[in-house]
Design goal:
It comes from Oryza sativa subsp. japonica (Rice). By secondary structure, the chain is an alpha+beta fold. It is built from 17 helices and 21 strands. It has three domains: 27-119 and 495-507, Uridine Diphospho-n-acetylenolpyruvylglucosamine Reductase, domain 2, CATH 3.30.43.10; 125-236, Uridine Diphospho-n-acetylenolpyruvylglucosamine Reductase, domain 3, CATH 3.30.465.10; 241-468, FAD-linked oxidases, C-terminal domain (Vanillyl-alcohol Oxidase, Chain A, domain 3), CATH 3.40.462. The radius of gyration is 23 Å and the shape is globular. The N and C termini lie far apart (48 Å).
């Protein structure tokens, strides 16, 4: 059996027996010494059920305690205390932001959860000088960062699609969206970090100071420390956004047009693609938010039974520059090979566009459709393999499926800092592909996980060279394969910054170490 498929088979077996995976481990005594720590915040020992859940809603690993830090010192004190307990203690620590992990990565079975959102305070500081930046807590939500920086007419350059995530959470992974082709992921847009390591040391780091820890933590899956503060560079924020969508029937034209746009000097400010399978009335659905360029022809378009490819783009502008924006957009559109009847557009404020997923969230919450299992699969595919992948996955594996959005868009490797811990293909252009399924009931979860299994199995056998984003592995062999030649560096950094493997146990990369280590002075 191929090791890269084990986690899916385990989940399939468990779900066939009845639903969400819950880990029950022998209950260790709550270390009474935790109650004796002097803190600005406090521990919770009883009301900890929320910390045993995440957005995936597929795993539940109850902690023994939740720390609600009142300061960075609280986090350092707690981690240092666990470190001093030594190798014989099984206690681990996980930082939990907004809990948007999928398979329990932000959980710590019978360990300590740090509620990072408790660290939100009035410490966010915007420096609007010549090289503007914002200092934000690792527990701050990106939407709050946006609101604060817009007061100065500024904003970060790189975003995620969903802004109700914490700064430390996305920087521990990568942080990608339609701006990534131009600015790189969020981890390529950081000036400085403050980190609490697995020894309990508070360290300020940057590309010039403690650079190894800086690059290790970015995309480091929480393995080397808890990000408690980040300094994010800013740029002037536009007031408005022209938001466009078009459709393609041909995958080759769809991908070639995207690749042309991300390589052009003058292009759109945001570019993402979507794959649409077995969706009826797609253009009619767009009418609630967008205006058709050709109302008559768009009303006659039939999407039933077709695989369609949607290209979504934006152009930023200020109201007094609307005419120039119109000319630039029309010039770019004239170079694309989309179906003319499918052009839809609308003008919205910058914040309305960036916070667009939250608007969808509110609608889904009202229907009870948000807090459901999300067996997502996020992968990165080399450009040279994207057509082979698409032919099998969209033409065969998923031809009868309709479980949720599928994102597919290219980015430029040159915009990613190869010193960070994130793993990407070794080609100048690669594709981010996300299968964002929602599942209701054990049967639907099992069906979706089975499709994920088939996608990964095909990719392995066909030599696609897939790398998982938000990776979900369970064995050291799988992680070694994921990191490849970078595994030795990742291990060495772990030994340097978290030698007892206290941090982020939910990633299932390292077991808590057993080593003879000098205690910190």
């Amino acid at each position: 059996m191929r090791p890269s498929l084990l986690q899916y088979l385990k989940l399939l077996l468990l779900l066939a027996l009845g639903g969400v995976t819950t880990m029950h481990v022998p209950k260790q005594d709550v270390p009474s010494s935790l109650e004796e720590l002097t803190l600005d915040g406090h521990f919770s020992f009883h009301d900890v059920s929320a910390a045993a859940q995440d957005f995936g809603n597929l795993s539940s690993f109850p902690p023994v305690a939740v720390l609600h830090p009142g300061s960075v010192a609280d986090i350092a004190t707690t981690i240092r205390h666990v470190f001093l307990m030594g190798e014989h203690s099984t206690l681990t620590v996980a930082a939990r932001g907004h809990g948007h992990s999928l398979y329990g990565q932000s959980q710590a079975a019978e360990g300590i959860i740090i509620s990072m959102e408790s660290l939100q305070s009035n410490t966010m500081r915007v420096n609007p000088g010549v090289s503007p930046y914002v200092d934000a807590s690792g527990g701050e939500l990106w939407i709050n960062v946006l609101h604060e920086t817009l007061k100065y007419g500024l904003a970060p350059k790189s975003w995620t699609d969903y802004l109700h995530l914490t700064v430390g959470g996305t920087l521990s992974n990568a942080g990608v969206s339609g701006q990534t082709f131009r600015h790189g992921p969020q981890i390529s847009n950081v000036n400085e970090l403050e980190i609490v390591t697995g020894r309990g040391d508070v360290i300020t780091c940057s590309p010039e100071q403690n650079s190894d820890l800086f690059h290790a933590a970015l995309g480091g899956l929480g393995q080397f420390g808890v990000i408690t503060r980040a300094r994010i560079p800013l740029e002037p924020a536009p007031k408005m956004v022209r938001w466009l969508r078009v459709l393609y029937l041909d995958f080759t034209s769809f991908t070639e047009d995207q690749e042309m746009l991300i390589s052009a000097e003058k292009t759109f400010d945001y570019i993402e693609g979507f794959v649409i399978i077995n969706r009826t009335g797609i253009l009619n659905n767009w009418r609630s938010s967008f205006n058709p360029q050709d109302p008559v022809r768009s009303s006659q378009f039939e999407s039933d039974g077709k695989v369609l490819f949607c290209l979504e783009m934006t152009k930023n502008f200020n109201p007094d520059e609307a005419d120039v924006m119109e000319q630039e957009v029309n010039t770019l559109l004239s170079q694309l090979r989309y179906m003319p009847s499918s052009l839809f557009h609308t003008d919205v404020t910058y914040i309305e566009f960036l916070d667009r997923v939250h608007s969808s969230e509110m609608k889904l919450r009202a229907k009870g459709m948000w807090e459901v299992p999300h067996p997502w699969l996020n992968i990165i595919i080399p450009r040279s393999m994207i057509h082979k992948f698409a032919k099998e996955v969209f033409g065969k594996i998923l031809k009868d499926s309709n479980n949720g959005p599928i994102l597919l868009y290219p980015v430029n490797k040159s915009r990613w800092d190869n010193r960070t811990s994130v793993v990407i293909p070794d080609e100048e252009v690669f594709y981010l592909v996300a299968f964002l399924s929602s599942a209701l009931g054990p049967h639907n979860i099992k069906h979706t996980l089975d499709l994920n299994y088939r996608i990964i199995e095909f990719s392995d056998k066909a030599g696609i060279g897939v790398k998982q984003y938000l990776p979900n592995y369970t064995t050291e062999q799988e992680w070694q394969s994921h990191f490849g030649a970078r595994w030795d560096t990742f291990q060495q950094r772990k030994k340097a910054y978290d030698p007892l493997a206290i941090l982020a146990p939910g990633q299932r990369i390292f077991q808590k170490a057993s080593a003879s280590l000098p205690l910190p002075s």
